[in-house]
Amino acid sequence: MSGSCKYIFVTGGVASSLGKGIISASLAKLLQSRGYSVTIQKFDPYINIDPGTLNPYEHGECFVTDDGAETDLDLGHYERFLNVATSQANNVTTGLVYQSVINKERKGEYLGKTVQVIPHITDEIKKRILILGQTGRYDVVITEIGGTVGDIESLPFLESVRQLRWDLGQVNTLSIHLTLVPYIAAAGELKTKPTQNSVKSLLALGIQPDVVVCRTEYELGESIKKKVAQFCNLMPNQVIQSIDAASIYEVPMMMKEEKLDEVVLEKLQMPSTPAPDLRVWEEFLQHLNNPSNSVRIALVGKYVELKDAYKSIAEAFIHGSADTQCKVHLSWVHSESLNEGNMHEKLHSFDGILVAPGFGGRGIEGKIETVKYVRENKVPFLGICLGMQVAVVEFARNVLKLDDVHSAELKPEAKNKVIDLMADQLEVKNKGGTMRLGAYTCRLEDDSKVMQAYKKKEISERHRHRYEYNNSYLEQFEMAGLKATGINPESNLVEIVELEDHPWFVGVQFHPEYKSTVANPHPLFIGLIQAAVAHQNASKQKNKVKLKNNK
What's the CA angle centered on 61, arms 57 and 62, to 5 degrees? Predict the structure, then answer.
């Protein structure tokens, strides 16, 4: 077991969706800003091997790492805050743990013993918790335990945490428990009883939290902090207030104000010097909160009812907003609500449009009509994954005038499948973990818009797809003005298309949103925002001329 690495465990109680991931990422940011090497991992209690086959309505976005792991969306937060890549080892599910144990049992590795939750499942969990710490790359590993205390599914994880705290020693481990302190309007009071009960549930499992973080809508005050501390066996400074913030990016500064990092370092007996260097973060917030102008951008997708389905895209726009000091007012437009007849009504007010990724045929014609609208009206456009594919389909239908055009995913019998199944996918039967996943190289064409955005010839971006641009049509597309400006050098796969004679029309097969962070906003989102500003200015100038001529 690791002797040099410290392990922090973050659990939640009272209610879900309190922000364990944001608290974990904020603490990690504070420790990183003091010079410590930190990573965060998420342990999810569901039985799916990974979220790759989950409907976005079920679990939100599926985040993809460089090494091709389909993971929980919280890993996106970890990367955005820390600007450090995660991997397969950073996300573990109950399904993955049980699969590993059952495979070992089938191979006879347990020598005929009865396989049980304790010790076999808990040992497997403990092994996976320690993997990153044992690499020698990290001073601190933060482990977020999904779900809430009291959930049946979480019990093996919590038992593993209890055991590890004894195995590693109290000075090498720390437990943070995030709870809710609700405000009862009728009584005009904040209530601590849910927090007390949640901590008691954790104590019953053998885990004494070292820090309790209280999510709240209102200031707790010292008296409430003392009350929570008294009934949770803590000192008052170990009760941390996490008040609702206007932006998740405010939370690290709030946790710094609450001295969460100081409490953690003291408990783990780690040096608390130097002081946190958050100048880059503060500059980011300064730019984000003080924009010089604004634009309206539409996100056209089919899961817009659940914003988490496009979490990384929304966050990438925030990073781009800060970089350009231009506030993006993002509107969520359901592709099923769009048709040829209402395009102008629905979309004319936007300065830029992004067509989102997705799978399946629902809402597809609305996306195709959206692309037609932006192409004909010179509206800045970014298509991601399926958004790029529908741009190819639209161009083939309405510019090349090909008959019976579609993607093989959506119409396998189509005469002209301009988007086709990748060759290495032909024999694939299982759905989980079998797509083209992870980081691949892309070589950019000189004098292209993407080359101007990236400012380099070769890039690496993350993928998640089965279908590809059909190179059989490449010459036809290019002759008509839809240029392939990004190519994978190994497979010759078309990664990027651009439309000539258009201010900003870019479709990408990969997912640029996965690589956008606070420290490194993604160039394609910056490019779209800048194009949207230019489009807005041109529209204003055009309207001025019209008014002048009408006088």
Answer: 120
Give 300's strand partners.
333, 355
* Residue numbers annotated as active site: 385, 511, 513
For the residues 188-211, what does the mean pLDDT come to?
Answer: 94
Determine the Cα–Cα distance for residues 325 and 309; give it in Å rounded to an integer: 26
pLDDT of residue 551: 63
**pLDDT given at position 428:** 65
The confidence score (pLDDT) of residue 433 equals 58
Give 388's contacts (C-beta < 8 A, 6+ positions apart): 469, 496, 497, 507, 508, 509
Residue 423 has pLDDT above 50, yes or no: yes
333-348: average pLDDT = 94
Q: 């925030």: which residue's tokens?
A: 318
Tell me, rounded to whole angstroms, the distance of Cα 62 from its chain centroid.
8
Residue 60: name the closest of 50, 70, 73 by CA.
Answer: 73
Sign of CA dihedral 225, 229, 232, 238: positive
The residue type at 519? A
* pLDDT, tens only, 27-48: 999 999 999 999 999 999 999 8
- SS3 string, 85-99, reads CCCHHHEEEHHHHHH
Which run of H or of E encompasses 11?
strand 6-12
Exposure on the CB side of residue 68, measured as CA atoms within 13 A: 8
* Of 474, 488, 374, 352, residue with least CA distance to 420: 474
